[in-house]
Amino acid sequence: MLFLDLARMNNKIHLRVTRIVLLSASAFAVVVSFTSYFYTKSVEQKIMENALGQLFSTVKHPAQIAAYLDNEELASEVVESLLNNDIVAGSILTSKTGLNVVAKTKFTELNNSLSYPLSDPFTPSELVGEINIQPNQVLLHERVKASALEKVLILIIQILVITVLILTLLRRALTDPIQSIAANLHNIVPGDDSNLKCPFGHERDEIGNLVSDINKLLVSTRETIKQERLLRSRIESLEKHFRLIFERASAGIFLLDNKLNLTSVNQAFKKIAGIALEERRVKKQNAYLPEFFFDPDIVHDLLQDVLKNDKKTACDLRLGTLITHEERWLHCLFSTVKNDEGENLIEGLVVDVTERTFQMEKILFESEHDTLTKLFNRRAGEQLLNMMLSNAKKNNGQLALLLIDLDGFKLINDNYGHDAGDKVLVEISRRMQATIRKEDVLIRMGGDEFIVIFIPKEGSSDEINLFVNKLHKQFDAEIEINSMRKSKIGSSIGIALYPQDGNEVEELLVKADIAMYQAKKNGKNCFSYFNSACSFK
Amino acid sequence: MRRLIISAKLVLIFIVLLPIQVNADIVVILNPSSGINELTRLQVVDIYMGRKVTMPNGKLFVPYGHPTNSAIRANFYKKLIGKSAASVNAYWARLIFTGRASPPKMAPDGLKMAEIIETNPNTIGYININDLNDRVNVVFRFGPDE
Hints:
Chain A has 537 residues and is an alpha+beta fold.
């Protein structure tokens, strides 16, 4: 902990700068000290030499005389007097004529001594000897040392003072304000309204600039955040609306991936396709969509087509209800959308059109069927006839066209009223309908005239005869007109055959009509082939 | 009275002539037995300033001078080494204390000086050229402008 604190402390700017200043100043001080030492040494040396020179000039005269006269006493007086000066470590006076007087302090070797020539006191051009003076090196050294030490001491004191000054000033001018700014900044939450306060006295310097720049940044950040919030709330409300549209839409909306699995559906879809979903116990959304339809293969092919060809398709599809077998029809609108990865997806819009489909079917039924007997009406009948004839032509098949006309129907109408007639017609229709096979068609052409289109299986006349007889027998039984009265009604049947009697519908109809009249002519309640007489009565 | 006037005149003349006397040529003389006919100025300086200079016979020169405050002494040293009598006195005063050197011996006047030189073979002296006699040898003389 302490170590960490120390490490943090060491990273403070003012300490770092101070440390650098201290180190470089110390290095500088060392250099200066050495230079100063050598400089001082040379200066002191010069001073000493100068002093020695002056000393020499004070003893010059007696020294000259001593050398001149080879006067040992005078010479020793001179050198001894020189030795009295602390800057002199020793001296030698020699004359040309042999005098050699030495004076020196203890432990002093005479080397590097300064030599001063002694001229003849009376003939200055003549040299009579010389005096060597040895400077006191120990003293010199001590002086230099003392001087250097003094300088170093002053330098150290200066460095310390400057360092402390720098430390204090830096701390006051830089570290403290920055720290206070940092502490303030730390407490500011992005987006709130507070600004940084500039430390007192720093309004116009770099720190003031920094604070004002930070404040600008804070303001712009605040502005940005405000705008972001606004935008976000707008997007949220928009998203809410869209979700509402999606969720609350009356149409079912869903999205399929490219494997035709549901990826998302809205509430309406769950409601509309609910039965199919429930029956299959589909909990997860990603279920295979075609499964829900009555004919999955068709739906699969359809959707694959949509996917492949980027088509828009609208169609009515029947929902596949497994258990209830309730008939539900959905109008589906499929189109492709691309997702962010560029894959083709299918979006679907589903509306429950069961009611409409039933209505349509009813209308269709009513347009094709006779309201009273629920048999095909004339218009639908003629279409069917044309179709079946062309089928027969295609398959090299046969067709028997039976034109049935009731005998004495007008009488029933006249005698018992139209309701009775209607009842007769309904009953007759029911009986005939029950007689014919599935592939055969019964048509009410109008009034009391019916047509049966019979498709023979073998094509033999017996087969047709058998059928006609069976049909004709239906008229034998009495018909209940009302609770009190029953009536019997006969029928005349004219038969035209394809291909024997003709190739066209009109031709066959005409010939069947002719055969029917032939049957009427033959005494009614019988049937007649076109090309023969009434064959049964 | 007349005698007085004459003597006063004599004194006056003497006074007037005195500087001429003082400036009169000084010569350095030796006993003829020394065998030396000439000395250089340096030799004269050495002999009179206390250096021990030996004669050809191996003996030292014994220099003789004039009284301390005599004009000829001052003149002599002035001419010889260019120093005043006071400097020369100081020079000798210093040397006397060393015990090794002694200043030249003194002769009371020029005649006495000549007499000393005549009688002592190793002595050397200086006199006014006026006091010169033929019993001594002049070995050095100052140039006329000195």
